[in-house]
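User: Okay, second chain of the day. Same drill as before: sequence in, structure tokens out.
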Amino acid sequence: MDEEPPRKRMVRPPSGGGDGRAPAQRLKTAKQRTPSSQAWLSRQLNDPFVTEAKAKGYRSRAAFKLTEIDDRYRVIGRGARVIDLGCAPGGWLQVLLARGAGAVVGVDLLEVDPLPPAIIVQADFTDPGCGERLAALLGGAPDLILSDMAPNTTGHRQTDHIRIIGLIEAAIDFARLNLKPGGAFVSKAFQGGEIAGLIAALKREFDEVRMVKPKASRAESSEVYLVALGFRSPHP
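Assistant: Same drill. Structure tokens below.
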């Protein structure tokens, strides 16, 4: 699931003279907006990744996070089978298709506009039977499992953090049960005390594990991505 709220405001790429930098965009009005909403809209207006996403036709700026990870670690193989957990609004699906993935299945709680030939399922990934359904739709063991999931927040920091960790653990369990030997796993995570345990769990199943903060992840955010390569055959 993308880190941006459903409503987005984007601006066109700057043009004209000067030093080549666009002047900071200001909100025309703050009427009836909360301070947090005003801050988010201001970041969107002045975010170069938002502008570039619009110019390239990506559904979200998060597409650049996956492109950077793939540029560094080559996780998207030509013809690969891929499952994308938390795929809304579809930016990662676009990257997967553009980079040659052969079969792609995405799932999200939110409705996602069609993006053929990807198969998109609107469901709760944690519901019983959902994981098996995704694997069946893919038509074979996935070479790559992606997770950009984030829970619906309650506003209670500790509760929200527990939910985030629970989703990551569920994604790791799904990868452990379904990934093709030698496959890769990429998951959004957040820096904190529990991340060491997540990395340790991945190292028991994968040959190589890296923690990455893509350039498109905002500097003030604790968001990072765990990249696990070389899945070992399931233990007997």
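Residues 63-231 form a domain with the Rossmann fold fold (CATH 3.40.50.150).

User: Thanks, on to the next one.
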